[in-house]
Amino acid sequence: MSNVLRGKFSYYSQHPFVRNVVTLQAGSFAGTVFQAVVGIFIARLLQPELFGIYALSFGLASIGGLLLGAGTQEAVSTLLGSAYARQSHEEIGEVLAFLIKITLYAGLITLLLLLFLPWIAHYFYGDSAIGWYASFVILAVFLSSSFTAVVQLGLQVVGRIKVLTTMVFTDQLLRFGISLLLVLFGFGVVGAVAGQLIGAVVLFVVSIFVWKKIKIEFPIFPSLRKLFNQVGGVSIKKYFGFSFWVAVDRNMGNLYMALPVVLTGIFVSSGEVSFFKLAFGFVNLALSLLGPISVLLNIEFTKMQIDDPVRMRQNFIKVSLYGLLFSSALTAVVIVISPLAFKVLYGESFMPSVSYVFGLFIYGGLFGIGVGLGPMWRAINKVKVSIMINLCILGAGVPLGLWLIKIYGLWGAVIMVTLWFTISHMASFVYLSRKLKSLN
Using an 8 Å Cβ cutoff, are 18 and 293 in contact? Predict the structure, then answer.
């Protein structure tokens, strides 16, 4: 048995995909840990009431900036991976120009929506300042989803995972590091959200130099001048059909993450929002280790569909089960350490969060089964089915969630997120397993 285990460990440790996952995972987790540490200091400096306003601002920004979310980038990563596999110079330029063009259009629409955020915040929370704070975060997302996203996709598709990992970590370092400095200098919530925008601007400039280096090493990519010249002439219609549905599907996931905090703030005080936000965030911090696996599967499942479609179902189920085991172990660790962690890191004023961490054990334990869902929906071009599943769940889940929060307060929010994610992941997993079996 020991020889078998040793052999499997040796095989997987040398596998390129596994090594890339570990590298990206390490950088992503380091960035997430840094973000969490900064969040601890910001929470201590702002205390529950102001930290609740900070949390609501980010939640509102997540919804207001949906058009700028990662959905379009993930759709383009599938298209780019396919074009690069065929070594199609022309299509690579078109796909990247399309991403820039669609991001600019989405940015213009989002800028118009920003005008209404203060009114929305005043209507739901009685504080229009929350809307203004959210606007800073949305502008930062706009910069991160434009040329910075193009560079990161380029690095991913050519296998420069170490450089990609460095950029991912630098993004967190700049945005949250500057935010913390501004809070320390006494700028409060304004400084916390303004730091996001300043950090995004710096990384945008750095991305330009990284792209020039990519172009030298991989001539198949267009130069900056040629790429931006292509933006005006690239056809939106050619890629919009596929990318639109993928973006909608991916942004469903963003909604699932943003809505719990936003809805909770309607019925409870901003101080209480802090307790749920920190508990939800603490569990998700550990679950973020699953993120790099999903990112790399966007490319791997697409390649597998071309090179070895027969093994897709087997690998999909294997990845999902490993993800389930991984998330269960991570959640168990989080629950065990949460009492001490919150007492030491956040202080006595945030200790009420601990009970909600325990309440999220089902949510966290079952979360990992969804690690391969998004990439597989895109690989077999069935994202419309995923959208229908999630629309049905949110259609019933939002009214139910509001009722649960109104009646049970923060425990209602815990029940709500557990039901949403568990039902969504299980329904999608069962459908995809059956669909892949029929394709074989």
Answer: no
DSSP tag of 88: -
CB 354 within 8 A of CB 217: no
Compute the CA torsion angle 231, 233, 236, 242 (nearest 10 deg). Answer: -70
Contacts of 108 (CB under 8 A, 6+ apart): none
- Joined tokens for residue 373: 């869902």
Looking at residue 222, the DSSP 8-state letter turns out to be P
What residues have CB less than 8 Å from 350, skipping those under 6 apart?
43, 48, 274, 275, 278, 342
Mean pLDDT of 39-45: 91
Question: What does the pLDDT average to over 386-401?
Answer: 92
Contact between 147 and 100 under an 8 Å Cβ cutoff? The reply is: yes
Beta strand residue intervals within 6-93, DSSP E: none
Measured distance CA(256)–CA(317) in Å, rounded: 23
Please tell me the distance from the alpha carbon of residue 287 to that of residue 326, in angstroms, as a whole number: 9
Q: Are 299 and 75 spatial neighbours (Cβ–Cβ below 8 Å)? A: no
8 A C-beta contact, residue 311 and residue 89: no
Q: Which residue is it, tokens 């991403």?
A: 99
Which alpha helices (DSSP H) does 126-235 contain, by range? 129-144, 147-157, 161-182, 188-217, 224-233
**Alpha helix stretches (DSSP H) within 308-371:** 312-345, 353-359, 361-367
Average pLDDT of span 401-407: 94
C-alpha torsion 162→168→173→175, nearest 10: 160
The tokens of 84 are what?
């690069």
DSSP string, 140-166: HHHHHTTHHHHHHHHHHHTT-HHHHHH
Cα gap 195→198, rounded to integer Å? 5
- Distance from C-alpha of 261 to C-alpha of 258, rounded to nearest angstrom: 6
Q: Name the pTM for this structure.
A: 0.76
pLDDT tens digits for range 351-388: 999 999 999 999 999 999 988 887 888 778 787 888 89
Over residues 391-404, the mean pLDDT reads 93
Q: Give the span between the Cα atoms of 257 and 252, in whole angstroms.
A: 9
Residue closest to 219 by CA, chosen among 87, 82, 83 = 87
